[in-house]
Design a protein that fits this description.
Blueprint: H1 2-14, H2 21-24, H3 30-45, E1 49-53, E2 65-69, E3 76-83, H4 91-106, E4 112-121, E5 129-130, E6 137-139, E7 144-146, E8 149-151, H5 153-171, E9 176-183
Parallel strand pairs: 3-4, 4-9
Antiparallel strand pairs: 1-2, 2-3, 5-6, 7-8
Keywords: Plasmid
């Protein structure tokens, strides 16, 4: 499943149809990414699994995507999507949501064995872009504060990977949380 999601995100990033333009243009929302990914997953995997958007899993908890295998023995997968460059997310919250949201809210059902935490950097480039004519900043670089330190997107991913590994170690029962990332800001 992870390979399929990563392949779809690579397609989004490198598509000749430039499906990712809306994300790089800073107009997209997490809903847009969720809807795009769920539609593409249905296209390629409908004979193997069903993808449900925001299915209630426990007391009004709703992962962005819930994947049900057509073979019940393969269980359930939750996918939580965050546009990491969105102003409403701070770095600490993005790291903590791996445990507080994905593990603690979505991974308790019988058959729920895997949670993917999908982080996307849509509109913030690696370095700030300056308009050559005006000298003003055209696009700010990706930056978040985690534990009081500034991190770029790669640094945030490193911290999220470490948190996912620590949370997975405490879950037991062959459960796994894994981080998937895509940087759509540059082509």
């Amino acid at each position: 499943m992870k390979r399929q999601i990563v392949a779809l995100l690579e397609k989004l990033h490198h598509s000749d149809d430039d499906e990712s333009f809306v994300f790089r243009d800073d107009r997209a929302t997490e809903d847009d990414l969720r809807n795009w990914l769920s539609a593409r997953m249905r296209e390629i995997g409908s004979s193997h699994y069903e993808v449900i958007r925001e299915q209630e899993v426990a007391v009004e908890n709703r992962p962005d995507l819930r994947v049900h295998s057509r073979n019940p023995e393969f269980g359930l997968i939750s996918v939580e999507i965050k546009l990491a460059d969105a102003d409403h997310w701070n770095g600490n919250t993005l790291v903590n949501k791996i445990e507080t949201q994905l593990a603690n809210q979505y991974m308790h059902e019988n058959g729920s064995h895997t949670g993917f935490y999908l982080l996307a950097n849509a509109a913030k480039p690696l370095k700030k872009e300056i308009d050559s004519k005006t000298g003003k900043v055209k696009r700010r670089a990706f930056a978040k504060k985690v534990a009081g330190k500034n991190v770029n997107f790669a640094g945030l991913l490193t911290l999220c990977d470490a948190r996912a590994a620590a949370v997975t170690a405490g879950l037991g029962g062959n459960k796994l949380i894994d981080v998937i990332a895509v940087d759509l800001s540059e082509r």
